[in-house]
Amino acid sequence: MSRIMDEPLFKRMLLLERRRCERTGARFALMLIDLDDLSRQMTAEAIGEVGSAVGASMRETDVTGWYRQASVIGVILTTLGETGREAIESVVVGRTKMILSLSLGVAKADQIDVSCHIFPEDELTVQPGGKNDRTFGSDDRALDAQNKLSTAAKRAIDFVGSLFAVILFIPVFAVIAILIKTTSKGPVFFRQKRVGQFGREFTFLKFRSMVANNDPARHREYVRKLINRELDGMDGTYKIKDDPRVTPVGRWLRKTSMDELPQFINVLSGNMSLVGPRPPLPYEFEDYSLWHRRRILEAKPGITGAWQVGGRSRTTFDDMVRMDLRYIRNQSLWLDVKILLKTPFAVLRGNGAF
Q: Among 99-113, 218-232, 300-314, 327-341, which range has the highest average pLDDT?
């Protein structure tokens, strides 16, 4: 059964969606499920199971979490379009009451108050968890909600694995550095700001595969169209095909994924993991819908992941996000091992690498 988001992260997500609503006018709904009366009769574990049952019944584009920890469940419903208030309340609240009745029985379900608030029409006071748009609540509180032993084990594997990889690939690093320096002007490494877990920006490292000082405007427009499904076909890759800015050596580096090797340094520093969602660019993050942002809130970005071994350019952007969310829901050390073992085969096939 799926685990729902803790209060600090959920409040932060709600704040982000309200600001997005104010900026774009795109409507969303907040459903509140008040379990306060019921919590006096049931254990905290049983209340948590109710929350998980509600979360499992929602759409992938909706976000379910504790609006008030172990007391009030909140569900942020996005992509409403022009659906009217009465239809939203009838369908969403009615379906939720049916789920609660099936989970708890009619007598207990009748003690639960379910309300629906539409934004921007309604007003509701929400206490933000941070000082700026990219600080998603308290890092410590968010991490404490995870299984500490699993988190520590994952970090240990990341550190040992990336250290071994850096030592192993030192000769390859040297050869690539010589090829880059002797075939084009500019630095060996390409440094770029990316958005990591909890919205913290970090410096992302790659071997330079393009001419130096190129204009990112073309890529920014390409990514915007990719996220908003304005591209033809199933081109889900983040890299532009036949990009004239890519050098001959850079084309080979991209095809073989050798340009990604410096990211082991990012893993060593703790900004990335060996396995996790791909870290977005800041301008890409700005175009995310609320449900897309869960892939950054709920996991540390990785060098490889479910999308890299299972989709790449054959999937749409939304499908890529769904792969990441499925990984986050089911993540375990064994799942990480399976993805790591599949990665060399994905690299050798070269599907989606440009």
A: 327-341
Q: Is residue 2 part of a domain?
A: no
Q: What angle, rounded to 10 degrees, do the helices at 148-168 and 333-349 form?
A: 30
Q: What is the mean pLDDT of residues 230-250?
A: 71
Could you report the per-residue pLDDT of 79-98, keeping only the tens digit for each? 776 667 777 777 777 878 88
User: For the chain, what percent of residues have pLDDT higher than 70?
Assistant: 84
Domain count of the fold of the chain = 2
Q: What is the DSSP letter of 327?
A: H
Q: Is there a single domain that holds both residue 26 and residue 166?
A: no
Let me know: does 197 contact 273? Beta carbons within 8 Å.
Answer: no
Cα Rg for the chain, rounded, in angstroms? 22
* Residue 101 identity (one-letter amino acid): S
Give the residue numbers spanning the domain of 172.
148-349
What one-character DSSP code corresponds to residue 184? S
Residues 104 and 184 in one domain: no
Span 181-216, pLDDT tens digits:
999 999 999 999 999 887 788 999 999 999 888 777
Instruction: Quick: pLDDT tens for 327-350.
Output: 887 888 899 999 999 998 888 776
Q: How would DSSP label each residue in 42-73?
A: S-HHHHHHHHHHHHHHS-TTSEEEEEETTTEE
Task: Pick 305 or 45 by higher pLDDT.
Answer: 305
Query: How large is the angle between the packed helices 170-183 and 148-168, nearest 10 degrees?
Result: 60
Task: Give this prediction's pTM.
Answer: 0.64
d(CA 120, CA 112): 25
Residue 344 identity? P
Are 117 and 67 in contact by the 8 Å Cβ rule? The answer is no
Q: Is residue 138 part of a domain?
A: yes
Nearest C-alpha neighbor of 115 from the set 41, 190, 34: 34
Task: Residue 296: name the closest of 151, 197, 194, 203 by CA.
Answer: 197
End residue of a domain, out of 93, 116, 144: 144
For strand 273-275 and strand 302-304, is the pairing parallel, antiparallel, or unpaired?
parallel
User: Of 127, 144, 161, which closes a domain?
Assistant: 144
pLDDT at position 8: 84
Q: Are residues 87 and 221 both part of a single domain?
A: no
How many of the other CB atoms lie within 10 Å of CB of 314? 13
